[in-house]
Write a structure and sequence with these properties.
264 residues, Rossmann fold, 14% strand, globular, binds nicotinamide-adenine-dinucleotide
């Protein structure tokens, strides 16, 4: 039986990160050609070597900074020059900042908004003409913080809220050409970003930071963080045939943390 994504071409930003690499792995397993972009050449080379070791896996690493508009354009151009088409864009590149808003700087705002929001938009912007040709799709990685507010994360939530609504607007704009645009909204996923959060903002007690996060989950004692492969499964589903009626959706994968109030 042919693999679902055979002859399909997927471009993933932030592909050397926790979620991006899991997404790349999942698409490779489904037979796709994967163009893996990341800012960090060292991590990208390691990820490409690890993922490319699977027999039949076709992965092309591209070092790029999504905050630079012409780099977003180049990412799409390199992909189409290499593979002749683009079927799916997954925007995973992202950075985190937290802390009291009165301590935030212009540099914090510029960096986080540039990667999370501007980079996502401009990768979409240059992918659109190619996706119109293939009736392809975009999956943006937003966040639970792109659906609900949380204290001391105003810049990050502003950037992810932007990603959530640009997802919906693009979905409407591109629907006549059967290009679908969706976002997944994870809560805490076990990745280098989560480790960075705990190490940088845990006041010397990363385990305490993790406990505080898990304390917000409705599962109580049985709460756990999400695995990157669980997010990747949802991304791959959204890119596939079975998701044909789904566009403009913000799909939460968060153990219910954004569902509302009322748990003990
Ligand atoms: N880990 C979580 O708990 C969590 C939860 C919800 C949403 N997210 C989102 O998921 C996405 C992936 O996060 P992750 O947890 O895998 O983080 P990660 O830090 O493991 O990976 C992010 C990747 O993005 C890359 N990147 C950063 N700036 C870039 C730039 N300017 N150009 C290109 N690449 C750049 C980094 O090098 C890194 O490899 C992010 O958008 C993040 O905001 C993460």
């Amino acid at each position: 039986m042919a693999s679902e994504f055979e002859n399909r071409v997927v471009l993933i930003t932030g592909a050397a990160g926790g979620i991006g690499k899991a997404v790349a792995r999942r698409f490779l397993a489904a037979g796709a050609q994967v163009f893996a972009a990341d800012l960090r050449a060292d991590l990208l080379a390691a990820a490409a070597e690890e993922l490319g070791a699977t027999p039949g896996a076709t992965i092309y690493p591209i070092e790029a900074d999504v905050t630079v508009v012409r780099e977003c354009e180049r990412l799409v151009a390199v992909t189409v020059a290499g593979a002749g088409r683009l079927d799916t864009l997954v925007n995973c590149a992202g950075v985190w900042v937290e802390g009291p808003s009165e301590t935030m700087t212009e540099a914090d705002w510029d960096r986080v908004v540039a990667v999370n929001l501007k980079g996502t938009f401009f990768c979409c912007r240059y992918a659109i003409p190619e996706l119109r040709k293939t009736q392809g799709c975009i999956v943006n990685i937003s966040s639970d913080a792109g659906v609900v507010g949380t204290p001391e994360t105003a810049i990050y939530t502003a950037s992810k809220g932007g990603v959530s609504l640009l997802t919906k607007s693009l979905a409407l704009e591109l629907a006549p050409d059967l290009v679908r645009v969706n976002a997944v909204c994870p809560a805490d996923v076990v990745t280098p970003m989560l480790r960075y959060q705990a190490d940088t903002y845990g006041r010397g007690d990363p385990e305490g930071y993790y406990r505080r996060l898990l304390g917000c989950y409705p599962q109580g004692e049985r709460a756990r963080f999400i695995r990157p492969d669980e997010v990747a499964e949802l991304v791959c589903f959204l890119a596939g045939e079975k998701a044909a009626p789904i566009t403009g959706a913000l799909l939460s994968i968060d153990f219910g943390t954004s569902a509302g109030y009322g748990y003990a």
